[in-house]
Amino acid sequence: MLILNDSELRKYGSRAQSPNPFYKSVRLTELILFDFKNYSEAHFSFEGKVNCFLGKNGVGKTNILDAIYYLAFTKSSLLSSDAQNVRHGGSQFIVKGKFNNEDRITEVACSYAPGIKKSIIVDGKETSRLADHIGKYPIVLIAPNDIELIWGGGEMRRKFFDSLISQLNRNYLEQLMKYNHQLRQRNSLLRQADNGRVDRDLLDAYDQNLAEAGKIIHEVRMGFLSELLPLFKKHYSFLSGSSDEDVDITYKSDCNDADLADLLKESYRRDLVLQRTCVGVHRDDFVFTLNGHELKRIGSQGQQKSFLIGLKLAEFQSIEKTKGLKPLLLLDDIFDKLDDDRIHKLVSLVVQGTFGQLFITDARPDRSQGLLKEANVEAELFQIDGGKLVEVI
C-alpha cells in the first residue's frame, strides 16, 4: 500500500519529530527564463503545492529546477561557470521569479552576460553583495549527483555543509568568505617565496586572520552537526525500516585537538616547501559511517540512498526549525533512483503535509501521475519537450 497506516505514521512522527505543519512556507508563484541553458524563453505559473515537470531525458526538466536554485543561491547547482548557463547562440541569460514569503510578494531577477558583472535585482533594487541574498529563499535539492557526497572527496561534503549552514547563519558565511580570501592570499604569497624567504610580517597577518575566522568556522560546524545528527538518524531509521543500523557523521578536522594559530606556525616549513597551506578548516571532512565503517565501503545501494535522503530531510527540518519557514523542496529524477518502499515513504511525508512547495522531475509521466493519484495528492503537471513548455495538465 502506498500510504503508511496510522500506527506507522504516529511511530515515525514520535521518532523523527516531524516538522511543524503550521510553519509557513516560502512559495514560488512565477518563473521566467530567457536564454537560460536550453530555454530561449519560457514562462511558468505555479498555483499548487506540488508541481511536476514531465518529459523524456534531455528535454530540460532539470534545467528548470536549476533555475529555481539559481534564484536562491545566485549560482547553478550543476555548473561552476555562469557562462555555461547561457543558451548556445545567446548573448546573456535572465532568470526571474516571484516568491510569496510570509504573505509578501518579492520579485527576484538574476542576469549574466559574459564580460559583465552578474546582477541580482530584488524588487527593482540591485543587490550589492551576493552574500546578503543567500538564505532569504531557502531551498533543499535532492538530485542524482548527491551520490558524490558519499563517493567524492571531502570537498564535496564540506560544500554541502557550508551551503546549508550559510543559509542559516549569516556570520558563518561572512567568516567563510573571509577565510577563503585569506587562504588564497597566503597561498599566493607562499608560491612567490624566494629561496625559502617570504615576507613574514605579511604571512603573520594572514595567519592571524585565518586563525580568527577558522576558529569560528570550526565551532559552528561542530555545533551544527551535533544538532543535525539526531534529526538525520531518525529520518534514516524511518526510510530504511531498520533500527539495528548505526549511522553516524564524524567531523574530522585539524582543529579538533589543536589551535589553528599554533598549527600554522608548526606547518610553516612544510608550507614553504609545498607552496600551499597544509593545515586548516579548508581540509575538514565529514565522514559518513554505517555500523562503525565507512558507508562507501560497506553500504548497499539501498543503505546509501536512505543515508542521502535522510540527510536531505534533516537539512529540510533544520532549515525549518531555524527559520520557522518550510523551504522549497526540489526532487530531481528521484523516483527513478529509489525502490518502491522508499518512494512510498517519501510520498507519505508529502501526504502528511511535512513539506511546503515541491518541484519534481520525472521521465515517466505515468509513474508520477499514478503515485500522486493513489496518494490523493493534487499536482500541476508540466509537459516539457525540447526546452519548451508544451502543456499544463
Question: Which helices and strands appear, and what pairs or packs with what?
Answer:
Elements: H1 6-16, E1 24-25, E2 27-36, E3 39-45, E4 50-54, H2 61-73, E5 93-101, E6 104-113, E7 116-122, E8 125-126, E9 139-142, H3 148-151, H4 154-168, H5 170-191, H6 200-240, E10 247-252, H7 260-266, H8 268-274, E11 285-290, E12 293-294, H9 295-298, H10 301-323, E13 325-326, E14 328-332, H11 340-352, E15 358-362, H12 365-374, E16 380-384, E17 389-392
Helix pairs in contact: 4-5, 5-6, 6-7, 6-10
Description:
With 393 residues, this protein is α/β, with parallel strands linked by helices. It has two domains: 1-138 and 327-393, Rossmann fold (3-Layer(aba) Sandwich); 153-323, RecF/RecN/SMC, N-terminal domain (Glutathione S-transferase Yfyf (Class Pi), Chain A, domain 2, Up-down Bundle). The chain has twelve helices and 17 strands. The strands form four sheets. It has a six-stranded antiparallel beta sheet, covered by helices on one side. The longest helix has 41 residues, at 200-240. The chain is globular. The two termini are 26 Å apart. The relative contact order is 0.18. Residues 1-19 have low confidence and may be disordered.
Please describe the structure with a list of short key phrases separated by commas or semicolons.
393 residues; alpha/beta; Rossmann fold; Glutathione S-transferase Yfyf (Class Pi), Chain A, domain 2; 2 domains; six-stranded antiparallel beta sheet; six-stranded mixed beta sheet; 12 helices; 17 strands
